[in-house]
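Q: I have 350 residues here and want to know how they pack in 3D. Can you give me a structure?
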Amino acid sequence: MALKVGIVGLPNVGKSTLFKALTKKSVDINNYPFCTIEPNVGIVEVPDERLAKLSALSGSKKLIPAIIEFVDIAGLVKGASEGEGLGNKFLSHIREVDAIVQVVRVFGGDQIVHVHDSVDPLRDIEIIETELVLADMDTVAKAEHRIEKESRGQDKEAAAKLPVLKSIKTTLEAGNLAASAPIDFSSDAARKLLVELQLLTAKPFLYVYNVADVDAPLAPELETRPHVKLDIKIEEELIEMSREEAAELEIHSNLQGLIVRAYALLGLMTYFTTGVEETRAWTIPVGSTAPQAGAAIHSDFEDKFIRAEVIHWTKLLEAGSWAAARDQGTLRLEGKTYIVSAGDVIVFKI
């Protein structure tokens, strides 16, 4: 399971530079609006020290980490929901991602042109979120008529969806993100409706504050949002430096924090398989049963599941080998109802 994260924001706030630093790919970062028309896509490894330790234990030939797919989406502008700045095309790209990282300019200075001629992070956040809310309101309005009609026709599924839709509509009309609607998002009706509508503001959000000093405090209004602080210009410069040069200058990257936070946005976690051929990280939703976790490898691992041998990665390292863990009794046999824990090492029996 690969998590697809869209990088959004106003033009010239550092989106493409961040993408370049994350993916080490050369992209067009010219200093003018709409230099990114088609989204750039890059695969990023999720940092995980456990992989190397398990690989060393097993003498693995290959090491395969969990990954995130980052999508650099062109800058949105005020009026995007009505087609401004190629807005409809950009919004369609956002609709295809699982989570949203919104880059917000906090650093000052006039060397980089701001599309609104001044630096105001809260205003910029409001512009982006307003456009996404307006786009979602249009989506909800189109769905409302259809679902009301189906509900009057004794469609039980539509009848269950309708109050959920009404609650989301009220939330959007108040200028708030759909994710903040007072509904049970785990209910069948809500899950089916959200899959059907693909609402932009129902997606998880993480804010990346592009700052000139990562140690400087943020305004309280910014601090309360889920966020990561980055000096994106420094992150770009680090691409060209060796580790020795970076250490000599006493500068370090904060990108790992962003990658890990992005990975957690959708409630995902990692379990491992390890052996001579490979040690691999597998991505599954938190709360997955052992058969559901097996499906990440192959559907047969869920359909034909018998049992699983399970041990936490720390216990396996302590034991020194799979056989030793079995002898010590730290290796467990688990059945179909076992809920996998983050960091489990598993062998499936089918």
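Q: Anything worth noting?
A: The first helix runs from residue 15 to 23. Residues 109 and 235 are 18 Å apart (CA to CA).
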